[in-house]
Amino acid sequence: MGVPPARAEPRAWGREPEEALGPDYNVAPTKEVPVVLDRPLKDAGDPRPVRQLRRLRWGLVPSWAKSPDGAARMINARAETVHEKPAYRRAFAARRCILPADGYYEWVTGKEERDLEVEGRRKRPRKQPYFVTPADGSVFAMAGLYEFWRDRTLPDDHPRAWWATCTVITTEAEQTPLAVAPAEGPRSLADIHPRMPLMLTPDRWDAWLDPARTDPDELRALLAPPPPGLLRAYPVSTAVSNVRNNGPELLKELPAPEEGTLF
């Protein structure tokens, strides 16, 4: 999944960031991504949480992990089990975040390959990439979790002694028709991939980010899928399949899938 950061004004999320956040049009696992979270400011002397826009490494490393080696495999957490999985349950209870993005990339696969993905088995190479984005041009607010990990091999004052990492929560892909579907190809998100990032509607942002909310049942209720028909998808160049490619041209809509990429 590729996640180009949103172009939305930081003020829409709360506190102004202390550094400029440039766009990234081809985000890959372990890269830094912009994340919105509610947390007390460091060394501020005030325990009240403040909404912040931070840069976190994509690929969650649990606080108890012996090393960060598995971070690239922890980019997604399933909404159905996130509250009980050892790697995520502590963060689910206290360290929730939102990853704002213009949208995400996903690759169309044939039915046989999709069946393997549902079963959690090894997948064959991807096919035609699509960009999925809100149909009204708004920000795609992905539910996420964040965590802190201490590298015990480094001294306290080392700049890499602490890692701040995050993961995107996913849910079953919508089977209802897209708000805007391509002329050729998939008609729903489920036609593209069996899973999708869980999109939080604005009415759930505050509750999801509030660290004072700890009731598991209330938090799980916030992970209900959004209303259907909010998203559009369109084919983009296969250049996005190479993480070395990065630029606004990757978001350009193609009139049709590239020849030879479908099934």
From TrEMBL:
Q: Which domain of life is it from?
A: Bacteria
Q: Name one Pfam family in it.
A: SRAP
What InterPro entries does the annotation carry? SRAP, SRAP-like
- Keyword Ribonucleoprotein attributed: no
Q: Where is the composition biased (Basic and acidic residues)?
A: 8-18
Please tell me which top-level EC class this enzyme sits in.
hydrolase
EC nos = 3.4.-.-
Which keywords does this Swiss-Prot/TrEMBL entry list? Answer: Covalent protein-DNA linkage, DNA damage, DNA-binding, Hydrolase, Lyase, Protease
- Which is one GO molecular function term here? lyase activity
Q: Name one GO biological process term.
A: proteolysis
Renumbered to this chain, region (Disordered) spans 1-29
Please give the family membership noted in the entry. Belongs to the SOS response-associated peptidase family.
Name the record gives this protein: Abasic site processing protein
